[in-house]
């Protein structure tokens, strides 16, 4: 591998793809080798980012990369994972909203390539995930857990992938499965809150980059763990950091906590 890690951006015309192209020139150790967009993108064939890379949909351009960063759609992400596995390329993906079959496709790809899929690449959010698991375990059954998230009005999935990441962390702290205890909305005569529940609330509005708060409500006290993103660049920098770290790893499924704290 060359001194610089060659990074292909998949979904380069999107909000995060654009941010990655803008951040990469100042990120030591990373060199963007390709900017891939959808075949139907109006930006196909135009120069993108400070380095004026030509937007392409040709997957053969991946051959010039060491690792691919993906911020696309669930279907495109699953297809890309299979393609990366065929080509032996490491894959970092921040695409959210994948269904169970698409997640299994990522698992299958990780049998032959290093793959890191994360709902959020902010260092602060991933520290919050760790702290929330500890807090949920520490409080035990004495605290009710609720998770609130807010994003811009154009976000299409709810709750956010990050809210689900936090929900799973809280569930691990209680030795629960999130799917067994999650309450996604409340309306009407819902009755008293059960003990084994993690509630979610969602706000969508204007240009909110991302806000997440986990509430642990015990009798006589309440712990609130909050992360607020004010600059989308934090996600791009986190993804680039992950790409540089992942490029030299053996095949397997990785998480941001592996990067921050070492393998568990």
UniProtKB/TrEMBL annotation:
The pathway this protein participates in, as annotated, is:
Amino-acid biosynthesis; L-lysine biosynthesis via DAP pathway; (S)-tetrahydrodipicolinate from L-aspartate: step 4/4
Detail which positions bind NAD(+). 11-16, 94-96, 118-121
According to its UniProt record, where is this protein located? Answer: Cytoplasm
**Protein EC:** 1.17.1.8
Write down the top EC class of this protein: oxidoreductase
Q: Name one Pfam family in it.
A: DapB_N
Q: Which HAMAP family match?
A: DapB
Job of this protein: Catalyzes the conversion of 4-hydroxy-tetrahydrodipicolinate (HTPA) to tetrahydrodipicolinate.
Q: Which family does it belong to?
A: Belongs to the DapB family.
Q: What is this protein called?
A: 4-hydroxy-tetrahydrodipicolinate reductase
- What organism does the record attribute this protein to? Lujinxingia litoralis
- This chain is encoded by the gene named dapB
């Amino acid at each position: 591998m060359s001194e610089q890690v060659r990074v292909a951006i998949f979904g380069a015309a999107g909000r995060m793809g654009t941010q990655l192209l803008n951040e990469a020139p100042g990120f030591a150790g990373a060199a963007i080798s390709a900017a891939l967009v959808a075949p139907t993108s109006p930006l196909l064939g135009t120069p993108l980012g400070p380095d004026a890379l030509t937007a392409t949909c040709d997957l053969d351009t991946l051959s010039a990369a060491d690792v691919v960063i993906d911020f696309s759609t669930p279907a495109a992400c699953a297809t890309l994972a299979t393609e990366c596995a065929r080509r032996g390329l490491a894959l970092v993906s921040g695409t959210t909203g994948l269904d169970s079959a698409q997640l299994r496709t990522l698992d299958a790809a990780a049998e032959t390539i290093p793959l890191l899929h994360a709902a959020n690449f902010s260092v602060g959010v991933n520290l919050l995930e760790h702290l929330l698991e500890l807090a949920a375990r520490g409080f035990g059954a004495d605290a009710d857990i609720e998770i609130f998230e807010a994003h811009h009005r154009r976000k299409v999935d709810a709750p956010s992938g990050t809210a689900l990441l936090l929900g799973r962390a809280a569930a691990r702290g209680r030795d629960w499965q999130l799917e067994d205890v999650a309450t996604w909305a409340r309306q009407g005569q819902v009755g008293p809150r059960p003990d084994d529940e993690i509630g979610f609330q969602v706000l969508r509005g204007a240009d909110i980059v991302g806000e997440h708060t986990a509430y642990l409500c015990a009798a006589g006290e309440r712990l609130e763990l909050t992360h607020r993103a004010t600059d989308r660049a934090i996600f791009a920098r986190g993804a680039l950091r992950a790409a540089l770290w992942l490029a030299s790893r053996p095949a397997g499924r990785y998480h941001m906590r592996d990067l921050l704290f070492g393998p568990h």
